[in-house]
């Protein structure tokens, strides 16, 4: 399986910092892009998880 988005964010930050330290603008830009991709993936997955949790909590309710 792939990496989780938290790990991808950390790698993106490291890549951005390394690019800035070495003066490599392309690497720094790639690091920022990696971070943005990870954030977008988080945003896409969270609504699914929230909906699943909501469904489970409603299923367990006792309305009697």
Shape descriptor: rod-shaped
User: Structural class of the secondary elements?
Assistant: mainly alpha
Largest sheet: none
Radius of gyration: 18 Å
Report the average pLDDT across residues: 83
Share of helix, binned = over 70%
Write down how many β-strands occur, each being a DSSP E stretch of 2 or more residues.
Answer: 0
Please state roughly what percent of the residues sit in beta strands, choosing from under 5%, 5-15%, 15-25%, 25-35%, 35-45% or over 45%: under 5%
Task: Name the helix and strand elements from N-terminus to C-terminus, one letter apiece.
Answer: HH
Number of helices: 2
**Spans with pLDDT under 50 lasting ≥5 residues?**
none
Span between termini? 44 Å
Summarize the structure.
This protein is 83% helix and 0% strand. It has helices spanning 5-22, 25-59.
